[in-house]
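Worked example

This section walks through a single chain of length 134. The input is the sequence exactly as stored; nothing has been trimmed or padded.
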Amino acid sequence: MIPFPKTEQEKREYINPKTTRPLTAFQYKVYDLCSQIPRGQVSTYKAISDALNGGPRAVGQALRINPFCPLPIPCHRVIASDMSIGGFSGGWGDCQFVADKKAKLAKEGCKFNDHYQFESNIDGKKVIFTDFKV
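Given that input, the structure is written out below as tokens.
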């Protein structure tokens, strides 16, 4: 597990091993919100982008290159607004990366149908986490 930079200096100096570039302020904001999604719950790219006044695709791009996956930044807990499981590690649709995402969420108690559509959180409710502290 790669430790998440805590201080502003650590954030400025951190180089993403997936891109060999520093992370942007927007990427850190996405990761900060993503880290707030509780185990056994999911949120959406749109819910995160709404909290940041950004766009869902920009959120997806930030999560695609998340160097802190799966913990401390659990990007597997973010799904598409249509309640489909969305992408994972750059993969989309019927691929091993998405199957891995489904398995991670199932291990946390989330349920999806055979078509990768979200059915419920660990508490049995079909509710999207949106209680972000920005």
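What to look for: The chain has a mean pLDDT of 92.
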